[in-house]
Each structure stands twice: as C-alpha cells, then as structure tokens.
Design goal:
This protein is an alpha+beta fold. Helices cover about 40% and strands about 15% of the residues. The strands form two sheets. Strands 1-3-2 form a three-stranded antiparallel beta sheet. A three-stranded mixed beta sheet has the order 5-4-6, with no helix packed on it. The radius of gyration is 18 Å and the shape is globular. The mean pLDDT is about 95. The structure holds zinc ion (3 copies).
Length: about 150
C-alpha cells in the first residue's frame, strides 16, 4: 500500500502535538504502520518489516508505546492473546473503527462506519456522560465460515 504524503503529515503533526520528536527511526516505523493499515501487527511483526533498516528492537518497543500515548496507535486484543497487537487510528474520523472477529477462523474485519450515533446520543442525555471514543469487538461467524467452505480452526 502506497503512502500519501498528506496522510503521513497528519500523523507526524499528531506526534509532534504530543511533544514527541520525529526521529528518522520513528518515521520508518510510522511508514510501516501506514503501509499496513489493515493489519493488527505485534511489535515483532513491525521488527520483521524493518529488518533492513538497522533499528534496535528496544527502539521499536519504545516507539510503539510512544505512538499509543500520542493517540495514533491503539492496543487491540481480539483473542485473549498474551502479546499486544496494535492498530493505527484513523485521524480523519472522531471515533475508533469496530472489529468483527470470526469465532471459527479467527479472521478480523474492520468496519469504518460508526453506526453508534443513537447509542451515543442516548448515553449523553440519559447518563450525562460525554462520549469521546469506543472500542467495539463483535463476535460471530464470517461469510466464508457460514458457507462451510472454511475448515480452518484457531
Ligand atoms: Zn482495526
Ligand atoms: Zn462513535
Ligand atoms: Zn470465519
């Protein structure tokens, strides 16, 4: 996936706003994340993608934490794994996307439609709670598994 310069700039700006500096290493890590937006990578996966870049593992681990604090990454956990997975936050929408997780094959799909407007309005009016974000994981059976074509088990 090719990176658009204006998109990269949005993330760089957001990192700077958190008063973190943009180093060449951090920029490389950011590019890997942007090129693989649909993935939910572990830090190990990122390290593999960076293998020719001479970036120390500790730097990658620290950068992932720093990106979380800057609000461009979120930790996600769909399958009660012990290892952290990360998801790039879409800076063009106010709330985090939802995930559909297949109970049978383990596939994770993203839905970018919010669909929670009615719920959010009701929570704000009834509970006087200001909704700023949400992380929703919907479990079920994916289209392929419903047809019985996929016998893969996780
Ligand atoms: Zn996601
Ligand atoms: Zn929402
Ligand atoms: Zn499935």
């Amino acid at each position: 996936m090719k990176i658009k310069q204006n998109e990269l700039n949005k993330y760089v700006k957001k990192i700077r706003e958190s008063s973190a500096k943009i180093t060449p290493q951090r920029l490389e890590i950011l590019k890997v994340l942007l090129r693989n937006k649909d993935e939910h990578y572990t830090t190990e996966d990122i390290i593999k993608q960076l293998k020719n870049k001479k970036i120390g593992q500790a730097t990658v681990y620290r950068t992932m934490e720093l990106f979380c604090q800057a609000g461009i990454l979120k930790k996600v956990n769909f399958k009660n794994e012990d290892i952290a997975r990360y998801d790039l936050v879409d800076l063009t929408v106010p709330h985090f996307h939802h995930h559909l997780v297949c109970n049978n094959c383990g596939r994770v799909m993203e839905i970018t439609e919010d669909l929670l407007e009615t719920l959010e309005e009701r929570i704000e009016s009834v509970y006087n709670f200001k909704v700023t974000d949400h992380e929703l994981v919907i479990k079920g059976v994916c289209a392929t598994c419903q047809t019985g074509e996929n016998h893969e088990q996780t």
